[in-house]
UniProtKB/TrEMBL annotation:
<dbReference type="InterPro" id="IPR004464">
    <property type="entry name" value="FBPase_class-2/SBPase"/>
</dbReference>
<feature type="binding site">
    <location>
        <begin position="174"/>
        <end position="176"/>
    </location>
    <ligand>
        <name>substrate</name>
    </ligand>
</feature>
<protein>
    <recommendedName>
        <fullName>Fructose-1,6-bisphosphatase</fullName>
    </recommendedName>
</protein>
<feature type="binding site">
    <location>
        <position position="94"/>
    </location>
    <ligand>
        <name>Mn(2+) 2</name>
    </ligand>
</feature>
<keyword id="KW-0119">Carbohydrate metabolism</keyword>
<feature type="binding site">
    <location>
        <position position="224"/>
    </location>
    <ligand>
        <name>Mn(2+) 2</name>
    </ligand>
</feature>
<dbReference type="Pfam" id="PF03320">
    <property type="entry name" value="FBPase_glpX"/>
</dbReference>
<feature type="binding site">
    <location>
        <position position="221"/>
    </location>
    <ligand>
        <name>substrate</name>
    </ligand>
</feature>
<keyword id="KW-0479">Metal-binding</keyword>
<dbReference type="GO" id="GO:0006071">
    <property type="term" value="P:glycerol metabolic process"/>
</dbReference>
<feature type="binding site">
    <location>
        <position position="42"/>
    </location>
    <ligand>
        <name>Mn(2+) 1</name>
    </ligand>
</feature>
<keyword id="KW-0378">Hydrolase</keyword>
<comment type="similarity">
    <text>Belongs to the FBPase class 2 family.</text>
</comment>
<dbReference type="GO" id="GO:0042132">
    <property type="term" value="F:fructose 1,6-bisphosphate 1-phosphatase activity"/>
</dbReference>
<feature type="binding site">
    <location>
        <position position="66"/>
    </location>
    <ligand>
        <name>Mn(2+) 1</name>
    </ligand>
</feature>
<feature type="binding site">
    <location>
        <position position="128"/>
    </location>
    <ligand>
        <name>substrate</name>
    </ligand>
</feature>
<dbReference type="GO" id="GO:0030145">
    <property type="term" value="F:manganese ion binding"/>
</dbReference>
Length: 329
């Protein structure tokens, strides 16, 4: 993450404008729910998101995108988006968070975008990142990425004033997490496994009374870690992450993106700083948002948009007309 520009503040109008971007991506992807077409759904979301980004009065640079320039035709890392006028901003996108979820019409697929002042978002390469996250209201450093899972579970339970048996950890359902899952259960806590969608899993920790999730643990995508950090920057909470390169090529890629210490433990302020806007729209029904509902040429979209500067979190229900003409679906 580079120094944040001094005079490139985000216009408050962008808070609602970015919602239109994620709405378009959600509508496009939702047309292909349950069709088993992961790539087609992802492409539809990418195309729709890029079209809407082009209309925004920003000078945007994609820092978290669909891949490197030679890997992705649109929304690649380093791509310039927007009208070319307005503030300079960094943009992180996941046009379809949960491609498999969408293809199988399972819960919690989202269209996600984060925007910051230039230099506000960590330029994270597309590799695994080990993460730990909790919601707001706790002492800084209550949990630690380097501590055993059981210690973190017990510390959180003590801070909440509840027995460990009342704690539920959200973990991606992957073979690599077998030992982690066993450690959490051995400590006496419950585990909620999710097939995909760790951005939503991390956001769930901010409202455990509603979601039942107290802590997020485990390895997922580094780009998703930055997007989740952007949400926590707005709504509150703690997150730590460390990159997990699997080969020299990934280490070289990280260095090229400005990460000089591959073993660095990133905290929230490293991943998302300054004024940040976060927007997500539901593609399929989930614990965070409802999925898109189609009614002829109308579509109803459930979104959440947040801004760190004002501390606002808005839940928006939109009814979009002429979805075929306006959103290209």
């Amino acid at each position: 993450m580079t120094d944040i520009g001094g005079n490139s503040g985000l216009d408050r109008v962008l808070v609602l404008e970015v919602t239109r971007v994620t709405e378009a991506a959600a509508i496009a992807a939702a047309r292909l729910r349950g069709r088993g077409a992961e790539k087609a759904a992802d492409k539809a979301a990418v195309d729709a998101m890029r079209r809407e980004l082009a209309k925004l009065a920003i000078r945007g640079t994609v820092v978290i995108g669909e891949g490197e320039m030679d890997e992705a035709p649109m929304l690649y890392i380093g791509e310039q988006v927007g009208s070319g006028e307005g503030p300079e901003v960094d943009i992180a996108v996941d046009p379809l968070e949960g491609t498999t979820i969408c293809a199988k019409s399972m819960p919690n697929a989202l269209a996600v975008l984060a925007m910051s002042e230039r230099g506000g978002l960590l330029h994270a390469p597309d590799m695994y990142m080990n993460k730990i996250a909790i919601g707001p209201g706790y002492a800084p450093g209550l949990v630690d990425l380097d501590a055993p899972a059981g210690d973190n579970i017990r510390a959180l339970a003590k801070a909440k004033g509840v027995p460990v048996s009342d704690i539920t950890a959200c973990i991606l359902d992957r073979p690599r997490h077998a030992e982690l899952i066993a450690a959490v259960r051995a400590a006496g806590a419950a585990v909620q496994l999710i097939p995909d969608g760790d951005i939503a899993g991390i956001i769930w920790t901010t409202d455990p009374d509603e979601t039942g999730i107290d802590i997020y643990l485990g390895a997922g995508g580094a780009p998703e870690g930055v997007l989740a950090a952007a949400a926590l920057r707005c709504i509150g909470g703690q997150i730590q992450g460390r990159l997990m390169p699997s080969n020299d090529e990934e280490r070289i890629r990280a260095a090229a993106m400005g990460i000089t210490d591959i073993n660095k433990k990133f905290v929230l302020e490293d991943m998302a700083a300054g004024d940040v806007i976060f927007s997500a729209a539901g593609v399929t029904d989930g614990s965070l948002l409802d999925g898109v509902r189609f009614h002829g040429e109308f579509a109803e979209v459930d979104s959440v948009v947040m801004r760190s500067k004002t501390g606002t979190v808005r839940r928006i229900k939109s009814k979009c007309r002429d979805v075929g003409g306006r959103f290209g679906v």
